Amino acid sequence: MSMMRICFSSLCIWVVIIALNSCAFAVDVSHDGRALKIDGQRRIILSGAIHYPRSTTHMWPDLIKKAKGGGLDAIETYIFWNAHEPVRRQYDFNGNLDFIRFIKTVQNEGLYVFLRIGPYACAEWNYGGFPVWLHNLPGIQLRTANDVFMKEMQNFTTLIVDMVKQEKLFASQGGPIILAQIENEYGNIMGPYGAGGKAYINWCANMADSLSIGVPWIMCQQPDAPQPMINTCNGFYCHEFQPNNPNSPKMWTENWLGWFKAWGNKHPYRPAEDVAFGVARFFQNGGTFNNYYMYHGGTNFGRTSGGPYITTTYDYDAPLNEYGSLNQPKYGHLKELHDALHSIEKILTYGNISTIDFGNSVNGTVYSYNGNSSCFFSNENSTSDATIHYKGVDYKIPAWSVSILPDCKKEVYNTAKVNTQTSVMVKKSDNGENEPISLEWRWRPEELDTTVVYGKGHVSATQLLDQKVMNDVSDYLWYMTSVDLKKNDIMWSHNMSLRVNGTGHILHAYINGKYVGSKWGGYDSVDNVYETNVKLKHGKNQISLLSATVGLQNYGARFDLVRTGLAGPVEIIGRRGDDTLIKDLSTHKWWYQSGLRGFDDHLFKFKSTSTWRWDELPINRRMTWYKASFKAPLGEEPVVLDLIGLGKGMAWVNGHSLGRYWASYIAGKGNCSESEQPCDYRGKYSAEKCVSGCGKPSQRWYHVPRSFLVEEENEVVLFEEFGGNPTLAGFRREVVGSVCGTAYENRTMELSCSPGRTISAIGFAAFGDARGSCGSFRKGACTSQNDALPVVQECVGKEKCRIVAAESVFGSRDCEEGIWKRLVVEALC
User: Fold this and answer.
1) Contacting residues for 690 by C-beta, under 8 A, at least 6 apart
2) Alpha carbon 226 to chain centroid distance?
3) 52-93, pLDDT tens digit by residue?
4) For residues 84 and 236, what is the distance between their CA atoms, to the nearest angstrom?
């Protein structure tokens, strides 16, 4: 009996110890109308989006470490429902879908997590993150008060929350997650759903709140968000946003650092000066939570890009580029802003606020706390600089900029004055030449006889089916039928055409085993009618139409109902004089075959045993598979696959899908901002304002993560849908080719090349009123011919160097009044 008592007492002691340990590091996260509060203290939170499936587990630690180095406090990510539940009640949380491992990696770096469960994501992700099987559930209506949908949404949301709770990852359990999101940007498209939409958003709030996660929930872009949800802002600028409740802090959940790219479109970018201006204005106007979308955009591997017609790259002009390298100057310019904001965190979150109108859209905001003051001076003019007078001192505020003075005396940061280097990235081959090392290609044709000659499929129907009905297991779906022409019909055959309405994204047409033509649209111009002349014969004619998707619709009211594939009618049209014969084939018996034979045979698998041909390599041949072996590029820099010369298709390395490629889709010409005439950051930004890449492929380079490669022989496989020349393709490394530095007077310039590479030469250096931008600098009226000498002495032969932009280093300058003197340097790596 006494032994039992001792054991029982010990058990009680251990239970108490375990209970104490489980809550010892728990963090209380709450909020008031000013800010999020962590353990009762108001905090400024600077967050950035890094989506775990758009990178690899191998990349995560480096990305997160760089994000922390850039001055972030938190990492944001969506949870992607269709990636985790591709088949109903069959789940996948392996590899780069292991979001628990991702969160723990963030935790190990000492950062917080903002978890956007949704589970609708948008995110330019295929079908907005919804699994396509949802579309095929009887009686379902998505994103409205529909019992079938709400049951599935609650099941998945609860699953994710339970997984997180089990690992004790909510802050209330001692984990890093301080914020969660339910739904996403529903307020933007809520109107067409009527009363069902309002009922749904109330249900979302109640369902989320019932999960008791112990941290606040938010709903972005939801002006009528019910309590206790916090409504937040998304956009290029959010300084004018006000939450719908006085007890909700002013939060910016998507600060768009750039924009996504679509096939056929130019490359959008957003100047660092304008991003910084938006952030500084937001904090000047009382904001305390800012999340960058994206901080690292990454890659849409496989078939994950949405759209339609959204590219495989999701670079987003983010501070960390698609491959994980620093995108300078954006990364460094924002880091300096973050340092300035963090230095005045207490006064921004607790101080009294007063404003000053200097006139002509120039304003000041003063935060005062415990006898200390911090100032923001903003100039919203898009062309005119301003000089203001404050407490006996004159301050010059450039157009479209904000100055931050932590003590209301000395400016430590101005959004328009970039003091961070610009890194010019280049693609370099291991052979040291501009051309990549040539690959020895093998090939084999996609086997088409079953579909284009015999019209055999695995499903039939007397109607044209939406491609999503096949659960979208691949981009490709064959629609096959036949038409019999009788003797009186054949009289029309000299002037017959095939007309297809609702071609989906891409259509390839075959008549009697022969290819007759293709049609496709673009992100901004979807043409849904295809017509081509055809020759038909007396008797049976086989019609085979291949529909190819390029990412399912991901945004808009009832986006799930946007038809994919052939909408119909499909018609044979004969013309003779003024007479027209129309045969509508839409209600014929259609056979369907999902996917392609090469996918079924797993031709893309690493070291597949399938037979490949070595004879004369065909080029510009449709529906062809190519395969080559290669050695991994040297070094540790990011690896890219150059697919110039190819058409459209999919690419794999060692069985890992790099995603869709479409190297033949060329961006239009005109309105590009290049280095000779850079985009003016001043004035409101839009996705069309600053673009580059006119007349070039929308995407030429495709990311090959180092973790996809092996030390011995590697394999690349291409499925070429349109026809192209694989002999031009090859692998390269992304390296820093040159760096440009800018430092305003009395600031220190820092220059550095990639790790292990030194500055080899100084291409340009000037102190004073130097003109132009990186790649096209030129001297001004008050620069000297000898300005390069101190820079050469300080920097050449070093990986990093520092030099002060001052007359004590470069000599006196007789510049006109009002000139902001600066040092500009271009260095070769």
Assistant:
1) 268, 269, 270, 271, 673, 679
2) 30
3) 999 999 999 999 999 999 999 999 999 999 999 999 999 999
4) 30
Which burial class, exposed, middle or buried, applies to 20 when counting CB atoms under 10 A from its CB (0-12, 13-18, 19+)?
exposed
Q: Is 662 helix (H, G, I), strand (E, B) or coil?
A: strand
Look-up of token digits 């260095």: 827
CATH 3.30.70.330 is the classification of domain 449-595: no
Identical fold for domains 45-257+288-306 and 745-828, yes or no, is no
Of 109, 254, 336, 380, the catalytic one is 254
pLDDT digits (tens, 9 = 90+) for 768-808: 998 888 888 988 889 888 888 999 999 999 999 999 999 99
The residues spanned by each domain of the chain are: 45-257+288-306, 425-444+599-663+699-734, 449-595, 745-828
Fold category of 425-444+599-663+699-734 in CATH: Jelly Rolls (2.60.120)
Exactly one of 76, 109, 185, 637 is catalytic; name it. Answer: 185
Q: How far is CA 816 from CA 188, 303, 768, 810, in A?
A: 50, 57, 10, 17
Q: Which fold has domain 45-257+288-306?
A: TIM Barrel (3.20.20)
Cβ neighbour number for residue 218 with a 10 Å cutoff: 23
CATH top-level class of 745-828: mainly beta
Q: Is 826 a catalytic residue?
A: no
Pick the closest to residue 592 from 457, 450, 448, 453 (CA basis): 457
Confidence at 433, pLDDT banded by 50, 70, 90: low
Using alpha carbons, list the distances in angstroms from residue 101 to 94, 439, 657, 689: 10, 37, 22, 39
Catalytic annotation on 185? yes
Count of C-beta atoms within a 10 Å radius of residue 747:
16
